[in-house]
Amino acid sequence: MRTVSLVEFRKNAARVLGRVRRGESLVLTSRGRPAARLEPIAERDVAPEDPIYGLAGLAGEGGESLSNRDMDRLIYGA
Fold first, then answer.
1. In angstroms, rounded to a whole number, what is the distance separating the alpha carbons of residues 15 and 53?
2. What is the DSSP letter of 47?
3. Rg of the chain's alpha carbons, rounded to an integer?
């Protein structure tokens, strides 16, 4: 796995992130030591009919916040 220094990342963040977006995984180093891994986020195949996409339709203006349990019940009937 290729490395990129923190100094290089600061100078050229857009270029480094472009490499990652194109599929390259990099190790970010700080003072010569590995500090973090930069890798592309895998695209997930989520079906358009997944109930989570309907959350916005459940929200009302000025309404109360829902707990996670309330959202599960509304979305999944659980």
1. 33
2. -
3. 20
Q: DSSP assignment of 50-72, as one string?
A: -GGGGHHHH--TTPPPPPHHHHH
Q: d(Cα 20, Cα 17) in Å, to the nearest integer?
A: 5
Q: Estimate the share of the chain in helix, then strand, then coil, as percent rounded to the nearest 5.
A: 40, 20, 40
DSSP label of 13:
H
Strand, coil or helix: 60:
coil
Report how far Cα 13 is from the mean position of its chain's Cα atoms: 17
Q: Taking the CA atoms of 53, 55, 56 and 58 in sequence, report the sign of the dihedral they define.
A: positive
pLDDT tens, position by position, 34-69: 999 999 987 777 777 777 777 777 666 777 777 888
Cα of first residue to Cα of last residue in the chain, in angstroms, is 44
Strand, coil or helix: 63:
coil
